[in-house]
Structures are given as C-alpha cells and as structure tokens.
Amino acid sequence: MKIYDKPVIVIGVLIFLAIFAFPLWTALGTTPPQPKVELPKDMKECVAPTEYMKSSHMQLLNEWRDSVVRDGNRVWVSHTGKQYNMSLTNECLRCHNEKSKFCDQCHNYVGVVPFCWDCHTYPKEAK
Amino acid sequence: MLEKALEGQPRYWGWLIFLLALIGAAAFGYSFQYREGLSITGMSRDVSWGFYIANFTFLVGVAASAVMLVLPYYLHHYKTFGRITILGEFLAIASVVMCILFIVADLGKPARVNNVLLHPTPNSILFWDMIVLNGYLFLNLIIGWTTLAAERKELPPPKWVKPLIYLSIPWAVSIHTVTAFLYAGLPGRGFWLTAILAPRFLASAFAAGPAVLILLSFLVRGLTKFDAGKEARETLAKIVCYAIIMHLFFFFLEVFTVGYSMIPSHLAHLKYLYFGYHGAGGLVPFVWTALVAGFAAIVLLIVPRFRQKEGLLITGCILVFVCTWIDKGMAMISGGFVPNPLHEVTEYAPTNLELLITFGVYGVGALVLTILYKVAVSIKQQEELR
Amino acid sequence: MTFNRRDFLKVAGLSAAVGLGGNAAFELIFPGQVDAAEEMKQSPTELTAKRWGMVIDVKKLTPGLRKTITDACHINHNVPTIEPPKNLKWIWEAPFEHVFTEVEQEYLEEAVKESPMLAMCNHCDNPPCVRVCPTKATFRRADGIVMMDMHRCIGCRFCMAACPYGSRSFNFYDPRKYLPDPVPNTAYPTRTKGVVEKCTFCTERLVTGQLPYCVEAAQGAMLFGDMSDAGSAPRKALRSRFSIRRNPGLGTQPQVYYLV
C-alpha cells in the first residue's frame, strides 16, 4: 500500500504524539510528592478492612448514600460487628478529622476532585 | 458522501466559519452557565422553565413535520415531493439535534444526564421523550442517508429501509405528542391541562415545519440552482395553510372552553398572555402579533393568486413562522407558569447570556443543516447532470 | 453497576486463591472475615410510622411564631437566603388566598383569612413530582415521606412544574455563596447548584427519635404523627376540629392538614 504525502503525515503524527505525551515528557526525571496519609492515632479499626477502604471506599460511600437516603437505613454493622452511623461528615470525619491530612493526600496525588464536598461539610482546619 | 461537504465556494466556507464562530461564542457563554449554574438565566422559582425548553418544544414540532413530506411521498407515491423530501428529512435531523442540545443546556446538572439511563423510569414522560427523540434522530439519519446513497448509485433504496420509513410516520407524530404530554399531564397547571394540547402542538408544527422548509427551498435555489420544484412548494403551501387554520381553530377551542367555563386557574393564564394580569403583561404585544400574523398568513396562503406569487408565498411563510414561534417559543411555556399555582405573578424574560446560548444551539442546527444540505444538493445535482 | 463490598471480597478471595491456594489464602489476607456479618439496618432510636402526616393549627400561629418556625427549618437545613425570584424555601408564610386558591371563601372568619398561612411540602399520597421525575431522584418512602435524593437529581425541574403547591425550590446559585462559613448547621449537608430541594419532614431527625424542627419550634401549633394511628396527636386534633387541605380536588391526597 502506498501512502500519499508520507513525510507530511509522519511529521503530523509525531507532532500529535509529542503534544499528547506532554505530561509524560515534562515530568521526566522528577519524583512526584508521595501522599502522606495521617491516620487517627487513638483508633485501631475502620468501618471495613483497610485494604478494602483503600481501594473501594468510594463504592462503600455510594452504598451508604443509597442506604441512608433511599432505604432509610442508617446503621452500619462492620466486619467486626461494631455499629456505625453511616455519615460522611458525622462519622468518617469524626476520626479522620483533618481532611487535608487524610482525604486530600491521595485525592490530590491522583488528581481527582470528588464532588462530595460541594454539599457535605468538613471541620474547619487551621491553615 | 460526506466528502461532498468538503468542497465548496468561498461563500460556503465563509458561512461555515461564521457558524463556527457563533457556536464558539455560545460555548464561551455556556462556560459561564456551567460555572455559575442556571442563575445566569432569567428563570426563577416560579418560572422554572424558560427559553431553552420553549425553543426545544418549537423544534420538536419542526422535526415532526417531516412526516408531511414522508407520508405523501412514500405512502402515497406523490412524486412531486421527490426532490424536497430529503430536505425535509435532513431538516428533521438538524432540529432533533437542536432539541437534544436545548434539553442538555437546560439541565442543572448536565454531567448527570446519564442517570436517565441508569435509573430508567417509565412513569416519567421525560424518559419517553428521550426515547422517541433519539429514536427519531436515528430513523431519519438512517432513512435519509441510505436513500440518498442509493440515489447516488442510481439504484432504488434497499428494501430494508421501507419498514423504517413506514415506522417513521407514526414515530414523527409520537415525538410531538409525547412533548405535549410533558405539559398536559400536570395537575396544577391550568394552561397546559387540556387534551387539545397535543393536537394543537401537531397543527402548529405542521404549519411551522413546512413553512421553514419552503423558505429553505427558496434559499437553496438561490444559492445552488437546485430547485425543489414550484409544484412541491405549492403543495406544501397548502399544507401550511390548512395546518395554520387548524392551529388557530384549536386555539379558539381552548379559548372557548376556558373563557366560557371561567375557571380561574385556567382563565388566569390567557388573561396574563392577552391582556396582562395584576399589572404584568410582558407578552401581550407578542401574542397579539402572533395572532395577527396567523390570520394574515391564512389570507396569503389560501388565495391561489397570492400563494403562487413567490414574494407573497415567502411573506406568508415568514408570517407562519412568526405566529408559531411566538406561540410555542415564547408564550406556551412562560404562559403556563404565570401565574404560579399560588396565583402569584413572577414574569420571565431571557437574559442576554441565555439568548447567546440559544443562538449557539441554532448555530449548531444551521451547521448540521448546511452540511447535510450540501451533501444532498451535490448528489441531486450530479444525478441531473448525467 | 456498583461493585459492592461483598463482590470485592469474592474477587479478592478468588484471585488470592489462584495464587496461593484455597481458603487458606483467603484466611491469610482477611483473617476471620469470610463470613463477616456486615449489614445496613435501621437505627433503633428511629421514630417510625405507617404514614407520617402533619396538622397545622392556624389559630395558634402568631407572626413571631411563624418566623421562629421558618427560621428553625431554614437555619438547621442550611437553606440559603437569596432574594426572590431565585430564592429557596422549604416552609414559608403566604396569604390565605394564595395557599388556598381553590377555597375562595369570600366571607371567611377574618382571623383566619387575614393571617398568613404556612406553606410547605404536603408529602402527598399521590405525588405528581414523583410521577414525573425521570431518575427517581424524588420518591415516596414506605412511610409516606416524599424524599429527595440530591445525589441523583439532574436538575431538569420537571418536578417543579408538576408540583401544584409550589413547594419545590431549585438551586440556581451555588448555595454556599449565600451561606455563612461555616454553615449554620455543620452536621447537615448543604446542596449544590443545579439540584431541586424541598422539605423532607426532617427524616434526619426522625432517625434520632426527634420530631421535625418546625414541630419542635411551633409550641403545639404543629402536630406530627402517624396518620394511620387513630390515637396519634394529629388524628386526635382532626377529630376535634374542622380541617382543610390544599387543593384536594387534584387528587394528590396532601398529608398536611390545616385546622381553621
């Protein structure tokens, strides 16, 4: 198969790739700051195993949301049998009371902006 | 076929660039709405739908009116519409695209629009509106494109499109009926709570759509030498004429029922629109203009001597457009919200940003229409050259 | 598709099993958690009813009391104060002839006719707003409360057109811009721009065994209870006095009754 205007096309594709890979080649050789998550000191366990919370807390929060708003069930019995109030502001943030040292660490690292905070409040922190 | 849209005179490209600039400006305007919410519109707690939904309603009608070409041409083999039917089908496509854009522009949370599919709710008319509008878009895309492609190869259209064409006929009626049902089933809104709303919508649509098409066919003839045919326009003009008569007749029926029964929650809206209500009467000059335009259009279109003069036909079609657009694009939605169910009066007028975004949506429609017409006309002309 | 916690455990267990072999692997990763008794349940303190409803004793409402009531609701629910016409209200004062448009009682007792009423969501048995919502963002709970799922609302405002009582408000603005920082009630969320909101009969209060804010503030002028229970406070009040409902002719079956 013959490609017409081969040099133009090749150069065009290269320019596209260069622009497309912009975030990669500008960050070459640098180490991004690692997230430093500060865990509550006096608490030993969370509402679900740590591994699960790390990977899937957003799914859990969605389940909680639907349970509370739609089914009216507000009590969560955890894997260890402890009972919790299913509430982001009133339960999660009771222990993880500094959003900037917990939630934001990973969220900023991976560049996600969860819209939870558009509505749900968090305790004010000293800057 | 799309390659036909990639060649043209500077005039063609200039027009496309103008449209893209308009769309760009409107997109910039929309970025404000996206950030600041619908606060940038003139809508309020009492008038919670405005210009976007009104224009959406009007354009659903224009889209549905393609049936006025498809039905005679495909069902009754009315050959005179042979050259204009494709223009009608493509106008329907552009209109549905605009409808969908208007709905999205009107949403408070456009990023969540998928929720309609994730949580399908058959008891909501909006759910059905989504289905019929998207269905109609695809039907017309498939029908228009395949018949045109077949024509290009000088072949009859493939057999499998026939059932789709027949399906598109009731489907066209359904899109405007369902749109009327959005309003006609709401208990607290006397202005819309009437069984005549869907027929009235259809009548004004069958006037507005073909009127726009006649105007477009003149425009196409002036720009490309492609003539959809005097006889086709003549037939369309008759359709427009009887449809606008039906529209005004249905309106009269509404006025009688509401006016003679004198039920306040129904009467208040007509009072507001035509005479003003508790000192508020922003739409009064418009609705009377619409009424006068409608009657004037009937005179121009019903008398053959007038109808056959191009200048008067064009005037008549513009009058029909003015009449139906004011009726649906301005009065129908605001009129239903003023007064509100508590009989409080809050008026509505669109803001400049709202107008800009509206023009941008019309710009997208014009862009889609230009490209589709370019393809259609190129192929039709090529065929005639042979 | 939600990938819930149990699915996660299954997949994690399965992938672990492939690598390490059988239940042993699962136990290694999640010791003692295979049959963890996770569940979501109702709060034991929750007030429950077959059919929640409310009675408003119009004659007991004084101007001061009406303000106390509306403030109690709006402040505790972080309802922003925005000038009309883009304002939000969950419970509000309005003249009798606006609240009861269809009553048309020209010569009604002046004490009733001239004192403003309180208007709010009627938590209808047959709610038009629920019928029209394309995403089930507004829905009727088994106990009759017409609830809003602000997470799911797409802001189409169909419910606002459908409600014959004008009980719904739309967030034209970002409400936080019109609220102090921190918000008045930090235990309750605000809303976000682009969603519809309204009275929820204080579902968040019922959970902890408390009555709605308005009822608490009303000093007996508002009664809240189970309409299916003939012995409940609102039912007793309805037996003793004449009551009206807003536009009952529409068949919506409002569950807010006014003693006049």
Average pLDDT taken over every residue of chain B: 95
Biggest pleated sheet of chain B = none
CATH class of chain C: Alpha Beta
Any idea of the CATH topology of chain B? Formate dehydrogenase/DMSO reductase fold
| Radius of gyration based on Cα positions of chain B | 21 Å
User: CATH superfamily of chain B, called what?
Assistant: Formate dehydrogenase/DMSO reductase domain
Could you say what the CATH architecture of chain B is? Up-down Bundle
Number of helices of chain C: 10
How would you describe what is shown here?
The complex is a heterotrimer of chains A (127), B (386) and C (260). Chain A is 49% helix and 5% strand. Chain A contains six helices and two strands, in the order αααββααα. A two-stranded antiparallel ribbon of chain A has the order 1-2. Chain B is mainly alpha-helical and 386 residues long. Chain B has one domain: Formate dehydrogenase/DMSO reductase fold (Up-down Bundle). Chain B has 14 helices and no strands. Chain B has helices at residues 10-36, 51-64, 67-75, 85-106, 115-118, 125-152, 161-184, 197-224, 230-261, 264-275, 284-302, 304-307, 310-337, 352-385. The mean pLDDT of chain B is 95. Chain C has one domain: Alpha-Beta Plaits, CATH 3.30.70. In chain C, the strands form four sheets. A four-stranded mixed β-sheet of chain C has the order 9-2-11-10. In chain C, strands 3-4 form a two-stranded antiparallel ribbon. Chain C starts with a helix and ends with a strand. Chain C is built from ten helices and eleven strands. Chain C has helices spanning 5-20, 22-29, 63-76, 96-99, 110-113, 128-132, 158-162, 203-206, 213-217, 233-240; strands at residues 39-41, 52-57, 91-94, 117-120, 138-140, 146-148, 169-170, 196-197, 222-226, 243-244, 256-259. In chain C, α1 (5-20) crosses α2. Chain C is an alpha+beta fold and 260 residues long. At the B-C interface, α5 and α6 of B face α4, α6, α7 and β7 of C. β1 (75-77) of chain A pairs antiparallel with β1 of chain C.
